[in-house]
Each structure stands twice: as structure tokens, then as C-alpha cells.
């Protein structure tokens, strides 16, 4: 039995089934008894430092993942086996990022009483879709992509490696009003878990059983659970954590251990639907929320700012990373030093450029909004 098949059997069959059928595991994983039945849309609370901080940590993890990706794309043949395995190991450690971004998105969205689906999506468009289009069109022009291919490049996120995630978010935002109605029912949380599992298992095997072609990689299905989980647990993660039981701490710690074992044994790149590792890191962060993230200091201030700028950093970092890595490799032959240098320089430049773009975009949208109001 190959390790890939064994990994799939354990990670995507045995463990998920155990999470569903073993009451003690189900109670911890799905936070049974700790979250309300979500019978109505919950009011938006004051912005919480915790979510900004973990989004900041996650965007740093995304940059780290893509240092490995870009390194392998351009300089894989120059790496030794030890260097390659080290880069893969570090990259895999960051695979909690996308689950945390999706849980945060589901938890932080709000739908006001006077909102309509169109009005809700228009707000999201201003915050996410327009910045995405601006950056995407600039890349299409810079990369000299023929206009005939622009549509497919954008809707599949192929214009830049990380952009599939924005397409996933757009789909989930379109579904959000419907999902709000569905989360009134407790069973829908478990349904979303099974749905994501069934969608992702064929994808992990490289099968396109749904015949979606280029759209397979950015289909929302395998990510649905994380987003829905965030909607259900909004109040829980916005609260201050109480004492955790020994079984809870052991369970969430074990999810990290299982993933680490998988990483060490597989020696392969593992991708972003981490039903155990992603949720494990989220809850480990929450367990230590007050100790490490509850106070404002230099670290939490930087991470929270990075979290607030995470969209712009996400849109800009990959191209910066490609440029920086090629520059660094041209002056150094030490792969480990190149890896670390590229990460640090990319983080600094992405943060700086994201701050500039966010400030200019906010001023532009504010000015346009005022002009529209005046004209009305």
C-alpha cells in the first residue's frame, strides 16, 4: 500500500468518520454545547484583536508557503535533497492558513436587517472584488495575456497562483444569504463537513469526477465547512476563552501531532484543506488567546495590522516574491539563507505596498462615495 493511499485512508476516511460517530470526539471538534443553534443572524461586535492577529499569522504562513513554491518553480534543480525536504517541511507547517482565513471570513461577516443579497454583495464587491480586479488586470497586461483569455484567467484564478482563493471567497459570499438560512439547523454543520470531505477526496487523488476542468481548483466545495464553521462559531471565538478541559487540550494537540507525523512520513507537499491541522491550529491559538494575543504589544500590533491588510498582501506578495527570490539567488548560493531572506524581504515589501494600496483605495472609494451622494 503506497503512503499516498494510506494517508488518504487515514486523513480523509478513518479520522473524519471517527469525528462524526464517536460522541466524545464529535463534541470537541464541532464544539457541541459551546455554540448556539444559530437561529438568527448574530449582531456584529466590536472588531476583535484575536481574528486580526490570527489572520496576520496566516498571511505570514501564506508568504512562507509561496517562498517554497516559487523556489521549486525556478530553482528546484539547484537544490539538494536535504534542502528540498526542508523547504517542503516548512511549507507544510503553514497549511493552517487557508482554513483560518475561511473560518475568520465566516465569523466576521454580518448581514444587517435591511440588507438584501444584492446590497450585501455590493459591499463585499467594494472591499474584495474591485481590488482583486485591479491587481488581476494589471497582471494580465504585464504578462501580455491575450484579451481572449482574460475571462477564463480571471474566473479560474489562474492569472496568479494564489488567486484561486479569491474566487472561492466570491462564491461563498454569493452563497452567504442562503447559508444564513441554513445555519438555523444544527445538522447543516455536519452536512458541510461531509460535503467538503466528499468534494476534496477526489481532488486529492487528481480526479475530475465533476467535470469542471479549469474550474476544479477554485470550486468552493472543499472549503465550505471552514466557512460554515466560522458562521456557527462566531460568538464562541469572539468571546474570552474559559478554562479548557484536559481532553480538549489533548485532542487539539493530537491533531497537530498527527499532521506533523504525516508531514515527516510523506515527505511531500500537502495542500490546504486541512480538516484536522487547520482546525487544530485555530483552537490552539484560541486556547492561548488571552496569554499571547489578548494584550496589545509590538508583536500583536504588527500581526493585527498585517491581518487587516491581509487581502492586499495576499494579492501582491506572490509577484514581489518572484522578483525578490530571483534577485537574492543571483547574489547568494546558500539556499537556506536565500529562503529566509526572501521571506523577510517579501514580508516587508508586501506589508509596505499593501499599506500604500489600502490607503489610496480607501481615499478613492471615500471620494467617489461622497460624489455619488452629492449627485443624488
Please describe what this structure looks like.
The chain is an all-alpha fold and 376 residues long. The chain is 72% helix and 0% strand. It has helices spanning 3-21, 23-29, 49-75, 81-93, 97-108, 117-142, 150-155, 164-182, 187-204, 224-232, 234-238, 246-266, 277-287, 289-293, 298-308, 310-329, 335-375. The model is unreliable at 38-44 (pLDDT under 50).
> What is the 3D shape?
globular
The helix/strand order is HHHHHHHHHHHHHHHHH
Q: With helices defined by DSSP (H or I, 4 residues minimum), what is the helix count? A: 17
- Radius of gyration, Cα only, in angstroms? 21 Å
Beta-strand residue percentage: under 5%
Question: Uncertain regions: pLDDT < 50 for 5+ in a row?
Answer: 38-44
Sheet having the most strands: none
Alpha-beta classification: mainly alpha
Helical residue percent?
over 70%
Overall mean pLDDT stands at 87
Number of DSSP-assigned strands = 0
Distance between the termini: 69 Å
Amino acid at each position: 500500500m503506497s503512503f499516498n493511499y494510506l494517508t488518504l485512508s487515514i486523513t480523509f476516511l478513518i479520522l473524519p468518520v471517527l469525528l462524526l460517530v464517536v460522541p466524545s470526539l464529535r463534541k470537541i471538534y464541532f464544539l457541541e454545547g459551546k455554540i448556539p443553534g444559530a437561529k438568527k443572524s448574530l449582531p456584529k461586535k466590536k472588531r476583535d484583536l484575536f481574528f486580526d492577529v490570527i489572520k496576520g499569522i496566516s498571511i505570514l504562513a501564506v508568504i512562507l508557503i509561496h517562498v517554497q513554491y516559487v523556489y521549486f518553480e525556478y530553482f528546484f534543480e539547484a537544490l539538494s535533497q536535504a534542502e528540498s525536504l526542508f523547504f517542503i517541511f516548512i511549507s507544510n507547517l503553514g497549511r493552517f492558513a487557508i482554513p483560518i482565513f475561511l473560518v475568520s471570513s465566516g465569523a466576521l461577516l454580518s448581514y444587517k436587517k435591511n440588507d438584501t443579497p444584492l446590497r450585501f454583495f455590493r459591499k463585499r464587491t467594494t472591499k474584495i472584488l474591485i481590488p482583486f480586479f485591479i491587481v488581476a488586470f494589471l497582471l494580465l497586461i504585464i504578462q501580455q495575456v491575450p484579451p481572449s483569455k482574460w475571462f477564463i484567467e480571471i474566473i479560474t484564478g489562474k492569472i496568479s497562483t494564489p488567486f484561486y482563493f479569491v474566487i472561492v471567497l466570491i462564491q461563498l459570499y454569493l452563497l452567504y444569504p442562503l447559508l444564513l438560512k441554513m445555519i438555523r439547523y444544527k445538522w447543516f454543520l455536519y452536512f458541510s463537513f461531509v460535503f467538503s470531505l466528499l468534494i476534496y477526496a477526489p481532488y486529492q487523488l487528481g480526479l475530475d469526477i465533476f467535470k469542471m476542468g479549469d474550474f476544479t481548483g477554485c470550486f468552493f466545495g472543499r472549503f465550505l465547512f471552514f466557512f460554515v464553521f466560522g458562521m456557527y462559531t462566531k460568538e464562541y471565538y469572539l468571546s474570552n476563552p474559559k478554562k479548557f478541559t484536559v481532553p480538549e487540550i489533548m485532542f487539539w494537540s493530537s491533531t497537530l501531532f498527527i499532521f506533523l507525523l504525516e508531514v515527516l512520513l510523506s515527505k511531500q507537499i500537502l495542500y490546504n484543506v486541512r480538516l484536522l491541522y487547520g482546525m487544530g491550529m485555530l483552537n490552539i491559538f484560541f486556547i492561548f488567546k488571552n496569554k499571547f494575543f489578548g494584550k496589545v504589544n509590538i508583536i500583536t500590533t504588527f500581526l493585527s495590522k498585517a491581518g487587516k491588510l491581509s487581502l492586499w498582501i495576499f494579492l501582491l506578495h506572490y509577484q514581489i516574491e518572484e522578483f525578490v527570490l530571483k534577485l537574492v539567488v543571483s547574489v547568494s548560493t546558500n539556499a537556506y539563507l536565500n529562503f529566509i531572506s526572501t521571506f523577510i524581504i517579501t514580508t516587508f515589501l508586501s506589508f509596505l505596498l499593501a499599506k500604500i494600496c489600502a490607503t489610496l483605495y480607501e481615499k478613492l472609494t471615500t471620494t467617489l462615495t461622497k460624489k455619488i451622494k452629492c449627485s443624488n
